[in-house]
Amino acid sequence: MTSQGQSLNSTLDDNCQENFRGTLLTIDSYLGDQDVERLKFLCRDSIALKNLEKCGSALDIFDYLMAEEQLSEEDPSFLAELLYIIKQKVLLRHLRYTKEQVEHWLPGRRKVSPFRNLLYELSEDISSENLKSMIFLLRESIPKVQMTSLSFLAYLEKQDKISEDNLTLLEDLCKKIVPNLMRKIDKYKREKAPQVGAPPVAKETESLHQGEKELFPHSDINQLLEALPEVSWQDEHVQRNGDRATPVSVEMLGASVDTLTSETSTKETAVYRMDRKHRGLCVVVNNHSFTSLSKRPGTNKDAECLKRVFQWLGFSVRIYVNVTKGRLEEVLQQFQTHPGHADGDCFVFCVLTHGKFGAVYSSDGDLIPIRQIMSHFTAQQCPALAHKPKLFFIQACQGEEIQPSVSIEADAVNPEHVPPSLQDSVPVEADFLLGLATVPGYVSFRHVEEGSWYIQSLCNHLKDLVPRQEDILSILTAVNDDVSRQADKRGKKKQMPQPAFTLRKKVVFPVPQEELLL
């Protein structure tokens, strides 16, 4: 081969490598902090632990996988497997795979070990309450640091307390705290053991599996409230005007903007397009800890539920935790110009934090107007989202702090006395929806372990009503009805959500092919 030919081949190789790295950069832009933690855990058998601990982003992980020749443009199957496991299946298209293709070849080409996969699946079903109980039982041997279910299992593995051939400790913990997880462990042991003489499933475990229930049963939540200890409830706080919320009149574009405290119109309307390359992006800002405000226990439950539901609906979800004012501005700028909007149907932005009238708090205590957040995504500021629905859900107080009982804490800070109109928050243009957990001047409630009334009800009703092809306003009407019927154990604390919108058409999400298991 001539030197000219060799040079041409080298140039082509460099261009291909550059294009592939561009693909990885795009995939990284869709992955949040929790996704990175999951990837690091799943790669514990593929990347040296000392190197894995240095990884602060998905790009770092990709670099190590490429250096180990486990990821390349010619064979991106390992990354496809990882994305499939962490339920980022919409990103498979960037690797030129479909979900069906991965499902077809995965059984024979799986690189994530059955043991690693088992631990990951278990971590997905270990709630924060379950995790606290497990750590309590092992307190003498567990460091006093904040842990996730993944980091907890990784620590047990690192200390040789569990391994692919030794699950005794894990079985003991599951039997005592989360018995229904024994099904996964039993399945792993059966598949690992030789076909002849595989260990039978204990009758006690079998009966527990038969009695297993969904995390979100479709039932009256008041029954749950009656069974919970009063001390476990907190509110996101606000002022009260009797037991009923006052409807807020909003005017947009010279017309009255509908609110869901009024009857929804029965007039047939057009439907927003939902057939582009991907559903869209969903951003979740989850503030648990603050520099000067109280913590918000239970909010991680809300964030996880939002992630599962919107991933199920086809969105690429990114979660940002304890976001400062500066970091929030970076996130807003990033998604204002995100290239993914061009091929997306819709955009969702969720904020879980403290708040007061028309504004929310950053983790460092600055108050950011909701309107300022939404204004980044107007047609002028974000042309790629023009004529597409932009949905904002805010779980935060919007009202005045009152003197709560000992079991209630307030998320409202430095209250005002006159609630503003929602007109001050929603941009004066079409295609926006703002869902507030409560009307201006009222409290919103959050259970310290099970999450907030509003977000849990929203997730439940999306799960139940999207398969019935209900539009988003009908779903939020059902959320209003559900939340308004709830109360604390004494029956004195109530809540009324308040959506407002300038939508021109119905938002009807396509029915997902997979069943949602929350």
UniProtKB/TrEMBL annotation:
Gene3D superfamilies, alphabetically?
3.40.50.1460, Death Domain, Fas
Specify one Pfam family.
DED
Give all residue intervals belonging to the Caspase family p20 domain.
278-401
One function term, GO molecular function aspect: cysteine-type endopeptidase activity
**Cross-referenced InterPro entries:** CASP10_DED2, Caspase-like_dom_sf, Caspase_cys_AS, Caspase_his_AS, DEATH-like_dom_sf, DED_dom, Pept_C14_caspase, Pept_C14_p10
- Domain of life per record: Eukaryota
GO CC terms: cytoplasm
Q: Which GO terms describe its biological process?
A: apoptotic process; protein maturation; proteolysis; regulation of apoptotic process
Q: Which residues form the Caspase family p10 domain?
A: 426-509
List residues of the DED domain: 19-97, 114-187
- What keywords are annotated for this sequence in UniProt? Apoptosis, Hydrolase, Protease, Repeat, Thiol protease, Zymogen
In which family does this protein belong, per the annotation? Answer: Belongs to the peptidase C14A family.
The protein here is known as Caspase-10 isoform X4
State the taxonomy lineage: Eukaryota, Metazoa, Chordata, Craniata, Vertebrata
